Amino acid sequence: MKPIQVGLLGIGTVGSGTFNVLERNQDEIRRRAGRGIEIAMVADLDTARARSVVGDKAKVVSDAREIIANPDIEVVVELIGGYGIAKALVLEAIAAGKHVVTANKALLAVHGTEIFKAAAENGVIVAYEAAVAGGIPIIKALREGLTANSIQWVAGIINGTTNFILSEMRDKGLDFDVVLKEAQALGYAEADPTFDIEGVDAAHKATLMSAIAFGIPVQFDKAYVEGITKLSSADIRYAEQLGYRIKLLGITKRTDKGIELRVHPSLVPAKRLIANVEGAMNAVVVYGDAVGATLYYGKGAGSEPTASAVIADLVDIVRLHDADPAHRVPPLAFQSSTLGAAGKELPVLPMSEVVTSYYVRIRVSDEAGVLAKITGLLAEAGISIDAVLQREADEVGGEGSTQTDLIILTHDTREGNMDDVLAQIQGLPTVLAPITRIRKEELN
Fold it and tell me: Cα dist. 178→115, 193, 328 in Å?
């Protein structure tokens, strides 16, 4: 049987990895797919670079629409990124009756509902394993492997840049700004790292996992997003002393009131496996009612790890190419006719309604009665204290210092309640600096 013909839009890091892995493992991939997979055309504005990768094994063009217009191309792989031209090209490929593979989490998190609807109307597949956690097959696990389960929650380290930064801050005792420069020098962080360090990249991925886990439409605009830029080495050190590590987590959780969808730094017990994921690695924990907790760990980015996921999607498309569209795995796991109803039943909760526990660090005057006043305000708000740690004044500010840090761990409370009481505490004359508040996730 003739190999299925693939057009590649963009041949940068992931595109070149996809081409090289497909060439290297062609025989094994053919045995698994039952048919060869051949990248016949490549579109890239830098045609010289593209030719240096593919040689004479594929036609190189500068206009992506030449690929979409080619009737021999059956699958389009979009590796351009972003929301702009990538969206237009994906929708044009779908309208032309071509299957699409994409690694573009931003595109799907923002425009996924429109794209998946167009794919259903045209009877084609949109596959996106590479969009979340690189080479880790978390999309397939959620869409297929765990379909017997009612998913209770998903929590993941899904951005390698921020995990590298937090690991270095903990290991070396350095502050954020110093480690960010190191990460940029090593190539872990972009020249403009905003999407990573502000949590946006992780929120794109969490949005997709939430939709698959709970059968709701993709709703990135309702995600709570907080990055790591305000974390200090002191907080990482104090967390360690209390038996926790700080990780940037993407969390989505089913509750009686609705779905939580949030990205923020979290204290995680050091004994949890996910707390020990270091460097640029990714890990996702999924908790299902039947299976319990399952952990998925591996490289979340990089040329060949991400290519591994892209090619896995291509193999799936080959296997399902001639199947009745109604018998294919739905892009968000749930049948499309049920997504709207599920969305009404399970709204995405505002952050003020989320219930969790907290780590709070308060810089205060080192004088009598300060702790009693603060704990009194927490008690009045109905917030129960789990632990209190008070540092020696000279440890915080040097010999002769008149200020100290209070670290308070709370039990579960509603975020809105915590916001109100922290505003009251911040207004006390003995509180000398902005309060640091980090959410705590036990991940039981």
Answer: 40, 14, 49
Residue pLDDT, tens place only, 30-75: 999 999 999 999 999 999 999 999 999 999 999 999 999 999 999 9
CA separation for the pair 444, 433 (Å, rounded): 33
Say whether 237 sits in a helix, a strand or coil: helix
Percent helix, percent strand, percent coil in the chain, to nearest 5: 45, 25, 30
Domains, the chain, in order of start with CATH, read 4-135+304-331 (3.40.50.720), 138-299+344-351 (3.30.360.10), 355-440 (3.30.70.260)
CA separation for the pair 41, 238 (Å, rounded): 54
Gyration radius from the chain CA atoms: 24
Q: What is the pLDDT of residues 347-381, one digit of tens each?
A: 999 999 999 999 999 999 988 999 999 999 999 99
Choosing from 205, 247, 253, 440, which is the catalytic residue? Answer: 205
Instruction: Tell me the C-alpha distance between 249 and 202, whole Å.
Output: 8
Q: Phi and psi dihedrals of 371, rounded to 5?
A: -60, -40
The per-residue pLDDT for range 281-305, each reduced to its tens digit, is: 999 999 999 999 999 999 999 999 9
Residue 205 known to be catalytic: yes
Structure tokens at 430: 């003995």
